[in-house]
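W.,

You were right to be curious about this one. When I first looked at the sequence I had no strong expectations either way, so I just let the prediction run and decided to look at it fresh. Below is the sequence, 314 residues in total, followed by the output.
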Amino acid sequence: MKHFLEENNLGKEEILSVFKNAFEYKKNRALRPTQDLMGQSWGMLFYKNSTRTKVSFEVGIRELGGDPVLLDLSSTQIGRGESIEDTAKVLSRFLDGLIIRAHGHEIIKEFAQYAEIPVINALTDFLHPCQIYADCMTILEKTGSSLNPYNGLKGKKLAFFGDTSCNMANSWILAGALWDMDIWLSGPEEFKPSPEIETFCKNANLPIRWKYTQDCKEAAQNADILYTDVWVSMGYEKEENDRKEKMARYQVTQDLLNQAKENSFFMHCMPTHSGEEVTQEVLSSPRSILYDQAENRLHMQKAIMKQLSQNNIS
């Protein structure tokens, strides 16, 4: 059973197919619904709140001809203590695929262990692979380079600021390893990349394509992309004041953006907090492409679902 829990779960030919289909879905969106998931029902189990992830997956399933089944902890027995094993095995009898947005990465891995249908990681505290694939699609179309990620992303420098131990930073580390990007991570010492992501890369035989520095300007120098995420993610509200104080000097400002290449872009996976991790000046800049990122979640996730459906039929 093929799942999409981590960026490297797909082989090279599968990745090429996913990116090709994502661009085709975007170009030909008027031709919907397609037949790709016709007659299929895909579950969406959300442990965490969501806007872009929930809407893009639900709309995407419908545009592929399938039917989304929305689930959350309050509407299922798993919220009252039913085991993941039982839930996964039962849902496998009803559904054709399962999309999960959870806290711990071990939750989604346990679902995949027992599920007899493809499982997609719609975000965990460790990784956000769907976002990264969509972001890389956005970089390819904005830089005018090859739509092949192995060609178009090679050598691109991306600088990530703030909490460099978060799921987005981890996912960029994996993207750098997969597509030969130069990933620079800049944030407070206590929020530097965790040993967990280093161990993951080692076990997956992925090369080290990232550097960590506390010097924001060094990270931004000649970068193709500046990237940041919220300083206080869900589950860290009690640490809000401490996090804001420690990360204040890693705010993405126009001065920092000026350190990057003249044709560089600013990206953010959203939601944004203007005046915290990024200034409104940068958010309003023509170099800010976060709405394109958000839109591309739809097209990329459709391509991922199509790929998994084809894999598991064959």
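Here's what jumped out at me. The longest helix spans residues 290-313. And, maybe more interesting for your project: The chain has a mean pLDDT of 95.

Coffee later to discuss?

I.
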